[in-house]
Design goal:
Number of helices: 19
Helix content: 40-55%
Subcellular location: Membrane
CATH superfamily of one domain: P-loop containing nucleotide triphosphate hydrolases
Distance between the termini: 73 Å
CATH architecture of one domain: 3-Layer(aba) Sandwich
Order of helices and strands: HHHEHHEEHEEHEHHHHEHEHEEHHHHHH
Pfam families: ABC2_membrane_7, ABC_tran
InterPro entries: ABC_transporter-like_ATP-bd (IPR003439), ABCG_dom (IPR043926), P-loop_NTPase (IPR027417)
Organism: Phytophthora fragariae
Radius of gyration: 26 Å
Low-confidence stretches: 1-7
GO molecular function: ABC-type transporter activity; ATP binding; ATP hydrolysis activity
Strand order of the largest sheet: 6-7-8-3-9-10
Shape: globular
Structural class: alpha/beta
Largest sheet: 6 strands, mixed
CATH class of one domain: Alpha Beta
Length: 457
C-alpha cells in the first residue's frame, strides 16, 4: 500500500474507510490486526465427512378421488373419509465429504432440489425439524459441531434465500440494529488479543478495529451500493419500500456483522443485475483472501465473470457429490468423462446441464461409457485424483495455528454478544420504532378510507 493510499484511507466515516475500495480496506485491516496479534488472523476450517441427511415425508395417496366429479356425495366422502397416508424417507444429502478452507471462496452449484440449501443449513447450525435424520461428522477447527452448536452463530454467518425484514424500518436502521445486536463496540477480549505487537502496532490496530466497528453499517452500505436508498424503508409485499434487488442486498449486509469466520450464502443473486452480483461477490472474494475467511456461496446461474471469481466449485446432483475441487480443473475433469463444453456455452450452465437430460449435447466419443445418473457421476468422482486430494485434506492433521485460534478466540466467546440488559434495551428501542410507524401507517389508511367513503358533492 502506497503512502498516498494510507493518507486517503481515513477513520472518520464509512465513506473514508471505503475511499479506495473494499480490497484496499481489507488489506489495511488485515495488516494492522495481524501485526498486533503477533500471529495469523483467526480463521476457521470446516470439514464434513460422510454427511447424509434424510427426511421422513408424509405422502397422501389420493389417486382414486383426484378425478372424481365435484358432486355432493363425493364432497362429503372427501370430508369424512381421510385419504390413506404413508411416510416416505427422502434422501436430501448422501455421503457428502469435503473441506472448506480459510482464505478460499467456494461456489456451490446444483439444480433445484440438489441439496445445496440443506448443506448450508447443516453447516450453519440451523435448527432441524424432528423428521430430519443426520448422519456423519461436521467439525470446525477440529471441534465437533454439536459441542459449539449454541455459539456457532457467533462464528458462522448464514444468508437465507428469503428476505425477512421489518418493513417499516429504513435500510440504515435495519443494518444498525443488526450491528447493535452483534456487539457494536470492540469487546474487551478483542482488545486484549490486539496487544502482542509493539506499542505502536497495538495502537494502530486498536484504532483501525475501533473505526471499523464504529462505522461498520456505513461500510456495508458502501460495499453493497445502498447509499441512495439507505433512508428508505425496506418494505415488503404490502408496503412500498426498496426494490427487490436492494432488499436482497440488505439481507446480505445484515449477516455481515459480528465476529464471523465463516460466511455461507444461499442464492444471494436473486433480483440482482449482473454488475451488482459481480461487485458483491468480488467483495466476498477480497474478504476470503485478505481476511482469511471461509466463504461458500450457492448460486443458480452465475455468469462467466462471476464464476471466475471463485477458487473452488462444489457440484451437487440429487444430494450426491459430482465434483469438489479447483475451478481451474473442473472443465478438464468432465472432459475426461466424455463431456466437452462448447466455446459458446457458459461454463456454469454447462456444469448444471450435466446433471440433466441436456448432457447429451456435450457428449464426445470415449472408450468407456459416460456416467448418466447422479450416482454414476458420484462414483466416477470418487475414483478421481481430485477426490483423493480432497480426502487427503480431510484427513490431514490440523494446522496448529487453527487449533490455537480456536482456544484463544472461539472458546471464550459467549453465546450472545450483548448483555441481557443491553440486548433488552436495543430490542425495546427497535420495537417502539416499529410500533410508532405502524400506528402512523394505520392512521394514514384510516384517513384515506374516510376520504374514499365521503360522498361526492
Amino acid at each position: 500500500m502506497s503512502p498516498a493510499t494510507r493518507k486517503r484511507l481515513g477513520y472518520e466515516s464509512g465513506a473514508a474507510l471505503m475511499a479506495e475500495g473494499p480490497q484496499v480496506l481489507h488489506e489495511h485491516i488485515a495488516t494492522k490486526i495481524g501485526k498486533a496479534l503477533g500471529s495469523a488472523i483467526p480463521q476457521m476450517d470446516v470439514r464434513f465427512s460422510n454427511l447424509s441427511v434424510t427426511a421422513d415425508v408424509v405422502v397422501v395417496d389420493d389417486d382414486n378421488t383426484k378425478y372424481e366429479l365435484p358432486t355432493i356425495p363425493n364432497t362429503l366422502k372427501k370430508t369424512f373419509i381421510s385419504p390413506q397416508k404413508r411416510i416416505v424417507r427422502k434422501e436430501i444429502l448422501k455421503d457428502v465429504s469435503g473441506v472448506f478452507s480459510p482464505g478460499k471462496i467456494t461456489l456451490l452449484l446444483g439444480q433445484l432440489g440438489s441439496g445445496k440449501s440443506a448443506l448450508l443449513k447443516m453447516l450453519s447450525g440451523r435448527p432441524m425439524s424432528k423428521n430430519i435424520t443426520v448422519e456423519g461428522d461436521i467439525t470446525f477447527n477440529n471441534v465437533q459441531r454439536e459441542q459449539i452448536l449454541k455459539t456457532l452463530p457467533q462464528f458462522v454467518a448464514y444468508v437465507n434465500q428469503r428476505d425477512k425484514h421489518y418493513p417499516v424500518l429504513a435500510v440504515k436502521e435495519t443494518l444498525q440494529y443488526a450491528h447493535d445486536f452483534c456487539g457494536a463496540d470492540l469487546s474487551d477480549h478483542a482488545k486484549k488479543m490486539l496487544s502482542q505487537g509493539t506499542p505502536e502496532e497495538n495502537d494502530e490496530a486498536l484504532r483501525a478495529a475501533s473505526a471499523m466497528f464504529a462505522h461498520y453499517p456505513d461500510v456495508i452500505i458502501q460495499q453493497l451500493g445502498l447509499q441512495n436508498c439507505q433512508n428508505t424503508i425496506v418494505g415488503d409485499a404490502m408496503t412500498r419500500g426498496v426494490s427487490g434487488g436492494e432488499r436482497k442486498r440488505v439481507t446480505t449486509g445484515e449477516m455481515e456483522f459480528g465476529t464471523k469466520y465463516v460466511t455461507l450464502m444461499d442464492e444471494i443473486s436473486t433480483g440482482l443485475d449482473s454488475a451488482a452480483t459481480y461487485d458483491i461477490l468480488n467483495t466476498q472474494r477480497s474478504v476470503a483472501h485478505k481476511l482469511r475467511k471461509t466463504v461458500v456461496i450457492a448460486l443458480l446461474q452465475p455468469s462467466p465473470e462471476v464464476f471466475a471469481l471463485f477458487d473452488d466449485v462444489m457440484i451437487l446432483n440429487e444430494g450426491q457429490l459430482m465434483y469438489h475441487g479447483p475451478c481451474s480443473q473442473v472443465e478438464g475433469y468432465f472432459e475426461s468423462l466424455g463431456f466437452k463444453c462448447p466455446p459458446q456455452r457458459d461454463i456454469a450452465d454447462y456444469l448444471l446441464d450435466l446433471g440433466t437430460n441436456e448432457q447429451y449435447q456435450y457428449q464426445v466419443e470415449r472408450p468407456t461409457k459416460q456416467p448418466r445418473r447422479a450416482s454414476e457421476f458420484a462414483d466416477a468422482f470418487r475414483e478421481s485424483h481430485i477426490y483423493m486430494e480432497s480426502m487427503y485434506a480431510l484427513e490431514a492433521p490440523y494446522d496448529p495455528e487453527l487449533l490455537r485460534s480456536m482456544e484463544q478466540n472461539m472458546n471464550p466467546m459467549p453465546m450472545f454478544s450483548q448483555s441481557f440488559i443491553d440486548s433488552t434495551l436495543t430490542l425495546l428501542r427497535r420495537q417502539l420504532t416499529i410500533t410508532y410507524r405502524n400506528k402512523q401507517g394505520s392512521s394514514q389508511c384510516n384517513v384515506r378510507l374516510i376520504a374514499g367513503l365521503r360522498p361526492r358533492q
